[in-house]
Recover the amino acids of this structure.
C-alpha cells in the first residue's frame, strides 16, 4: 500500500462520494441507524463520511496511514483502524453490515480478506461490494490510450464467477450481482468515470 501513502495527500482532488452511489450503498446495506457498519478499504473516508452524514455509525479500515489521516480529518467522529483486510482487530460478529468500494482488486489475498470480513459481520449481515472485473476493463475505451496500465489493472481484477465462488467459500450464504453504468453526473472521478467527458 506504499502507493496509497504516496498519493493519499492529493487523493481527494478527484475522488469524492457520489450522491447516487451513496444512496445505493445505503439502500443495499438495508441500513438501520442503531447499527454499526464497516467501510473496508475506506481510503480517505469519502463514502464513510457521506454515510455517516445519513446517521450511520461507521468504522473505517485501511492499511495506509496517509489515507487514514485524511479520513480522520473528513470524519472525526468515526472510528478508524490501520489494518489489512485480512487482519481486522475487531471482535467476531461486531458489525451490522459492511461496504467495500473499489478496493477488492488491491487486496493481496481476496479470500483471506473476505473470510476476515465475514468473521467481523453478524450472521446474515450484508457486505456490499462496488467493483469491476478484468473483462469489463478490457472493454474500456481507455485501453486505446493506456494499454499497459489498463492491462495491469485488468489483471488485478477477478471475474464474477471467481467473486461468487470465493464469497460462498468464505461463508457468505447468498451472492447477487447488479449492474452499474457510469452516469453523466457522476461526481466520483474514479477510473472510467469520464466516459461522458473523455477530454478529462
Amino acid at each position: 500500500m506504499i502507493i496509497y501513502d504516496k498519493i493519499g495527500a492529493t487523493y481527494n482532488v478527484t475522488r469524492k462520494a457520489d450522491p447516487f452511489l451513496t444512496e445505493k450503498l445505503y439502500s443495499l446495506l438495508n441500513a438501520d441507524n442503531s447499527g454499526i457498519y464497516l467501510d473496508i478499504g475506506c481510503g480517505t473516508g469519502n463514502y464513510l463520511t457521506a454515510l455517516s452524514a445519513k446517521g450511520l455509525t461507521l468504522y473505517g479500515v485501511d492499511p495506509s496511514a496517509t489515507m487514514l489521516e485524511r479520513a480522520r480529518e473528513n470524519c472525526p467522529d468515526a472510528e478508524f483502524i490501520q489494518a489489512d483486510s485480512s487482519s481486522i482487530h475487531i471482535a467476531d460478529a461486531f458489525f451490522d453490515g459492511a461496504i467495500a468500494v473499489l478496493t477488492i482488486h488491491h487486496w493481496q489475498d481476496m479470500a483471506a480478506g473476505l473470510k476476515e470480513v465475514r468473521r467481523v459481520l453478524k450472521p446474515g449481515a450484508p457486505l456490499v461490494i462496488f467493483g469491476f472485473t478484468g473483462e469489463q476493463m478490457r472493454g474500456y475505451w481507455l485501453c486505446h490510450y493506456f494499454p499497459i496500465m489498463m492491462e495491469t489493472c485488468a489483471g488485478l481484477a477477478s471475474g464474477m464467477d471467481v467473486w461468487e465462488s470465493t464469497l460462498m467459500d468464505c461463508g457468505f450464504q447468498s451472492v447477487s450481482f447488479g449492474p452499474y453504468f457510469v452516469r453523466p453526473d457522476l461526481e466520483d472521478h474514479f477510473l472510467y468515470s469520464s466516459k461522458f467527458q473523455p477530454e478529462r
Q: What stands out?
A: DSSP finds eight helices and five strands in the chain.
